[in-house]
């Protein structure tokens, strides 16, 4: 079954304490070269049948009205997950 991925991120002007904590931990764990981190959320919507423009429009509307808080978050991506990405192991994503 096809999957639609929705990515939601805090608006740039919103403080991101989780991202800040991760950014502080990265160099201590040997991961260098990263200037900052923003923590977001990902939703996967499984579709029965074909993904049509109408289904994508419904996913966008759900993302704006239900999956995100428009006061503090932006919906940054609503897209069909490719078949090759669906077949990858979770650790490879």
UniProtKB/TrEMBL annotation:
InterPro entries: PurS, PurS-like_sf. One of its GO terms (biological process) is 'de novo' IMP biosynthetic process. It catalyses: N(2)-formyl-N(1)-(5-phospho-beta-D-ribosyl)glycinamide + L-glutamine + ATP + H2O = 2-formamido-N(1)-(5-O-phospho-beta-D-ribosyl)acetamidine + L-glutamate + ADP + phosphate + H(+). Keywords: ATP-binding, Cytoplasm, Ligase, Nucleotide-binding, Purine biosynthesis. This is Phosphoribosylformylglycinamidine synthase subunit PurS. HAMAP family: PurS (MF_01926). It comes from the Bacteria. Its EC number is 6.3.5.3. GO terms for cellular component: cytoplasm. The lineage of its organism: Bacteria, Bacillati, Actinomycetota, Actinomycetes, Micrococcales. Coiled coil: none annotated. It holds the Pfam family PurS. The keyword Cytoplasm applies. Belongs to the PurS family. Part of the phosphoribosylformylglycinamidine synthase complex involved in the purines biosynthetic pathway. Catalyzes the ATP-dependent conversion of formylglycinamide ribonucleotide (FGAR) and glutamine to yield formylglycinamidine ribonucleotide (FGAM) and glutamate. The FGAM synthase complex is composed of three subunits. PurQ produces an ammonia molecule by converting glutamine to glutamate. PurL transfers the ammonia molecule to FGAR to form FGAM in an ATP-dependent manner. Pathway: Purine metabolism; IMP biosynthesis via de novo pathway; 5-amino-1-(5-phospho-D-ribosyl)imidazole from N(2)-formyl-N(1)-(5-phospho-D-ribosyl)glycinamide: step 1/2. It is found in: Cytoplasm. It comes from Citricoccus muralis. Part of the FGAM synthase complex composed of 1 PurL, 1 PurQ and 2 PurS subunits.
